[in-house]
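tl;dr need the bound structure. longer version: we got a ligand (NDP) that a collaborator sent over and nobodys looked at where it sits. i said id run it. heres the input, straight from their email, havent touched it
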Amino acid sequence: MSYIDEVLQEVVQQNPNQPEFHQAVKEVLESLRPVVEKDENTYRQAAILERLTMPDRIISFRVAWMDDNGKVQLNNGYRVQYNNALGPYKGGLRFHPSVNLSVMKFLGFEQIFKNSLTGQPIGGAKGGSDFDPKGKSDREVMAFCQSYMTELSKHIGADRDVPAGDIGVGAREIGYLFGQYKRLSGVYEGVITGKGLSYGGSLVRKEATGYGLVYLTEEMLRSNGMDIAGKTVAVSGSGNVAIYAIEKAWQLGAKPITCSDSSGWIYDPEGIDVELLKQVKEVNRARLTAYAEARPSAQYRPGRGVWSVKCDIALPCATQNELKLTDAQALVGHGCIAVAEGANMPTTMEATTYLQQSGVLFCPGKAANAGGVATSVLEMGQNSQRTSWTFEKVDRKLHDIMVNIFHQAEEAAREYGVPGDYVAGANIAGFKRVAEAMLAQGIY
Ligand code: NDP
Ligand code: 2IT
């Protein structure tokens, strides 16, 4: 049996009931065949794939906090420190009821390759909790964040592990988490990114994932002889990534026509009103029904359905496995030319294969959504230098990083005989840098 097949089998056997984790590992390892098979002995001897798929450590803990009725509530807290061959552990925190070890491990594993692709000195990690910030008061969210950080603070630090936001963790949560870290450690350091601008945050970090996604999409189209201007764009989600993808799509002359949340979705043939969307989601923390009530051109439908709309470009920006085979078939049927993943692993394996075989340009999340973490590293740099850069300077760096990531994936795909397969290209380019650093650093 080939080394890759052996490791795949072991991962499934040793990590039962972790379907998201299996999916992420399978997608990466399958596409590494041309690299690994070239030098199978070296990788096998050094157990590189076993070490890459097994996290350095998994921190799992109880988070107790008191709700507004004086009742003590419990949640599961996690931090998966996956691999630090390239630099301190880096990756977001997700607060959502669906969080479990499978989700944490898939996200942490993906983060290794994403962070490597940025070319910056960061390892991969992910953390979070099954706590649901939705419907909680600010005080309850603060109580939870303080309790979660009380445990997490023992394991992080500006040169050790630097968390950030993800689903359910935005500016409010980052503020409470940072405040508690500072209180416990007595150290004012860049231990978390996505901070508010008044206390060490970077301009453009809030916008970075969405903007970066659209910069990369623009470059992918350009490289294939097309232009983003004039294209219609279907976006899913209405959180941090979706909002700023919609904003940048408008700025580059495209027309975003959909968005969604976990209750329903919006089709707005006149294009999504991004200022209204920000008001509804960022300020009022309301549902999309409030957007539809305020916008006569918008149609609200409950449930899912974003991918049934005719569009040129699809940007899934909500959550994992939200774009399924039937959605891919609908997109292809309507003439969609490109899909780029703003979320992590939003497209199922079957849907990805179908899109690629149908000639749709497809860019995986670990390349397309890397602008968030890349700008987090720019925030870390500014914190270390005790300085802050202008919006234009950070935005230019973000743009250049995204263009570079696309060309790395494109080049690696070409070099290894699968031109246009940006999934394989991103995995190969990300893997090569990590594997080289691991081999150089000896057995650990
Ligand atoms: P937010 O919490 O800001 O927004 C998440 C959005 O997705 C909301 O509209 C939410 O709807 C929707 N959503 C979440 N879970 C589900 C679900 N199970 N079913 C349907 N809709 C759902 O998160 P972000 O925008 O930060 O993250 C979105 C995606 O982007 C995630 O996959 C994340 O890992 C990825 N990502 C984020 C980065 C960042 O910098 N923030 C960087 C790179 C990737 P509702 O409000 O109803 O729950
Ligand atoms: O999935 C991701 O890349 C993030 N949630 C951002 C991580 C970060 O450290 O900025």
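gonna send this back to them w/ a short note. The longest strand covers residues 72-83.
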